[in-house]
Amino acid sequence: MGRYVARRLLQMIPVFIGTTLLIFLMVHVLPGDPIRAMWGEKAADPAQVASLRHEFGLDQSLPKQYLDYMVDLFQGNFGKTFGGRPVSEEMSMAFPVTLRLAAVALTIEIIVGIGLGAWAGLRAGRAADTGVLIFTLIVISMPVFVLGYLARFIFADELGWLPPNVQDSMNLQQLLLPGFVLAMLSMAYVARLTRTTFAENLRADYMRTALAKGLPRRRIVGVHLLRNSLIPVVTFLGTDVGALVGGAVVTEGIFNVQGVGNLLFKALGQREGTTIVGVVTIFVLVILLINLLVDLLYAVLDPRIRYA
Amino acid sequence: MPDMTKSQSGGTAVDTAVDAVAPPTAVDTAAPGAASQGKPRSLWGDAWFELRHRPLFWVSAVLLVLLLAVAAFPGMFTSADPRNGDLTNHFLTKPELTHFFQADWFGYDGQGRSIYARVIYGTRASIMVGVGVTAVVTLFGGLLGMAAGYFGGWIDSIISRIVDIFFGLPFLLGSMVVLNAFTERKVYVVIAALAFLGWTTIARVMRSSVITAKQADYVTAARALGAGTGRILFRHVLPNALAPTIVVATISLGAYISAEATLSFLGLGLADPTISWGIDISDAKDAIRDNPHVMLFPAGMLSLTVFAFITLGDAVRDALDPKLR
Fold this sequence. Notes:
The structure holds two protein chains of two kinds. Chain A is an all-alpha fold.
């Protein structure tokens, strides 16, 4: 187990370096000069531009810039914004907010998604199954921002059940609506996946054995079927973090959540290279670690899987 | 132990669809469902047989034909000019739901433009982005995946590592960063940006199904008969490894359309004067409280389009997946 984790962590290093290099190149090589953009339409003083370039290290060669950035990164220094604030400070304000939002979304995703999927899977081919299938198809067809405005319009503006904006991210009630919107797409996929595996595993031999042993239905479904059906769902939840991150940019914008998505969106608008690279780097790291966690979870769910 | 390359990095929702598709190994044998007809059917004939019996396939097929017609000949569906705004007469006019196919059918937006005309003319950009990205991604990712799967060794190692690196980047997030650098965002720029980040899924799918297909006896037989690499690859391996790729490509087409709209909505995708549903929905967001119709129609049309493609992909997957029969 320990050796497996160590090997996986080692394998992560080239991927991490490659991905950060890619994002770094995307920010710095693509057309557009962030320093010049500070002046907007006005004429810029070349001397000032040059001194700012020097201050942010943008006059160095690209490999040098990347190397400097990585060296700083491993010392926990994410650089500073053009406004002079450390990027790490901005991120430490924003990340907890997004983390809470993601936690709300993930909870909804797991409970509602698996619940709906299990319900449909146990009634495969019947009206409930078709209903869930159509419902998930409709949800998948609606882009996050359409869903977001629809939910806000219905539940906040018209019905007034929930607040339309998030002023305080500690308030669970305020996070409920954006969390719900963020969760919807993945929830639909979780439901479909659970439905498929449930319907498939219902025909498995161990199910017949359990039934023949005279186990109560609750135990058959809740232990035997559920545990065996969870592996693909857990895999999906792990790979889905990336989509959650993209959705967060939109959801946070709609509901005015001051999280990482918002930070990133603002940074994109101002061409804040350091902030963009910093935020994406953290995301990449989180995604890599979550995928490792998912692989380790397999062994918990299925004792046949052992990590040497 | 789980497959290392697959479990290593994050992915999109499309991935889950992939897992459901078993690589078609026994292609030329008749499926059990075809027993009633004496003649054995190929995988594709079998899939077509399955498809014809699915109502959702026909729903999506009809929708898609209609959408393609609208995208190709928008002028046939409306005579109104989508760019001509008339603020004095039409500012935020409510829809006239009985005026079928008239300029005021869906009402007017905050710039006095016919929403019906904008919805019609916006179809082209969405379909072009969806089809364009899918075409580029299938060709490019498919070829790389095929090379990695067939040749193995160092070629596989290099391609797989590159795939891992691109895969580590969240799709929507990455395209935001890429598109942010371009000021003139035409359709082809959006296609290029989405394809740049989207090709990895197909490459992975193709790689794994090629690995399965190349071990089949008919490949060994072909090689024994003296067939060259090109012939084996394109005549024997590719046709037998194509099904999962087609499934993923169809399902992701809807996802690309959705991604384009999301990016345009954020102001990072298509830009004026291109007419895009995403831009219109973004323009409508301030008016939504009193004039929900301004958002309702472009959003509805967008969802309908994505629905058509996702449903088609769903039906194709069910038809090509022998496990579900």
